[in-house]
Amino acid sequence: MSSSLDNSKPIFQQIAEQIEDRIINDSLREGDRVPSTNEFAAHYQINPATAAKGINQLVDQGILYKKRGIGMFVAEGAKAQLVKKRKDQFFESFIIPLRSEAEKLDISTQELKDMLERGTNHEN
Question: Which superkingdom is the protein from (predicted)?
Answer without folding.
Answer: Bacteria
